[in-house]
Amino acid sequence: MNTPAREPQQERSRTTRRRLIDAAVTCLGEFGWNGTTVAIIAQRAGVSRGAAQHHFRTREDLVIAAVEYLGEAQVEQLRTRAAQLPQGQARLEAVVDLLLNLYTGPMFRTALHLWIAASTDEALRPVIVPLEARVGREAHRVALELLGVDEDRPGARELVQATLDLARGLGLANLLTDDARRRTKIVHEWARVLGVSLPQRSGLSS
Amino acid sequence: MNTPAREPQQERSRTTRRRLIDAAVTCLGEFGWNGTTVAIIAQRAGVSRGAAQHHFRTREDLVIAAVEYLGEAQVEQLRTRAAQLPQGQARLEAVVDLLLNLYTGPMFRTALHLWIAASTDEALRPVIVPLEARVGREAHRVALELLGVDEDRPGARELVQATLDLARGLGLANLLTDDARRRTKIVHEWARVLGVSLPQRSGLSS
């Protein structure tokens, strides 16, 4: 049934879906979980409530799509930026800079709203936990790849995990004040520590 | 005017104040900033609304007192636990274990609620930012002392800061699921890294 007439409609449908997801991300960051309803998201997206509910039956469905989108966007952004990093001596610090700045944008605030809401909302929790686990695993995989680490070496897995946990802690520290100057110094020192302590597979500094 | 008759009243007043602060901490953790009003706190504390407003004129006043209390309680708890730590070889990992578990309790959830609320609430933000800076400085001071670090050595300050940022990241990771097993491995590895990378003043392992 792939007639020419269907194409534009499918595309319209994709655009609507995407606008709803974008609006959901914005609303979650602005109003939190409690303040974000399908009606408010639809209004922000410029979509009728009926059309919104055609795409996403419940608020939970929309949030699942939004979190998945955020996770994928983050990993994609990471890969794009990583492709532009220098090779050689300077690479390790550039990679660490990238990783430790992962959670300093508005996406992190949205994620925080959801985590906190899920920590007390019994309906939201089972939705968020497996999603977060998946997004977290993907971030770990990319970090491992960028740092060029052999995960079989003792301690390597934990140091990569600690790098991402540190990144989330730095994201928190950046929530209320611009923490960029302090973070830059931590990036420098963390890169030095990883250079000494992290057994590398592919010789980042070669 | 320190007559015997005044003593019990002062004590009652202190008890009421303390009950209001405890209730504020509980309510913030449970309902977040938006859901926490003076009326709800008073009810939880078993205190009349008038009495609550005698002690704390506004919700902001109560929250300042609650955050200060949380910060002091945390540092006090840290000192008490630190006093019981072993000396010698085992001390460094025990200290790291203490620090990286700082933000895994219910107090952290309360703090998170406030940080997120302050990130979008223009009235709350100027209240929370200086308070958090003060609490953060105190945590840094204690961490420095426990790790026995000479902060004048290059990189030492950043590694102690990174340890506390990592602790907050681990607190986030523990919000939705029990992350204790993974955290224990990170504690072990981080203690090893600090043992190698952190210039120590007072010879922790001596």
UniProtKB/TrEMBL annotation, chains A, B:
Residues 37-56 bind DNA. The keyword DNA-binding applies. InterPro entries: Homeodomain-like_sf, HTH-type_TetR-like_transc_reg, HTH_TetR. GO terms for molecular function: DNA-binding transcription factor activity; transcription cis-regulatory region binding. This is TetR family transcriptional regulator. SUPFAM superfamilies: Homeodomain-like. The keyword DNA-binding applies. Keywords: DNA-binding. Pfam families: TetR_N. It comes from the Bacteria. Residues 14-74 form the HTH tetR-type domain.
